[in-house]
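Minutes, project check-in
Item: structure for the 125-residue chain
Input as provided by the requester:
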Amino acid sequence: MGGVMKRICIIPARGGSKSIPGKNIKNFCGKPLIYWNLLALDKSELVDEVVVATDSEKIFKKVEEFNFLKVKLYRRSTENAQDHSTSEDIMLEYINYAKLDSSDIFMLVQATSPFTRTEDFNNGL
């Protein structure tokens, strides 16, 4: 407690989608789907850190290739990478892992919303 407040965005990106396998890294307008929100968040002057929480080595490697400055990768637990796992489950897992300060702002971002712009994220924050 009492540290410098950070604004952290988390993008859950599970590798085992049954409806559209590999959807988070499927090509969308020339780039992997997850790229678009990462780009918008990386451009934001209000976002300090972007965490991609994944269980997939393919997603991990693809996100690493982007070389965004604010993006960190987190290997989520197998327990929180199941069909029944919720976004809240992975958010709580990461909050406990990172030991975030109570003053930090933590925002959930869905990789499946590629049209969200930097200004949309800024307005939300």
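Outcome recorded: The longest strand covers residues 7-13.
No further action items on this chain.
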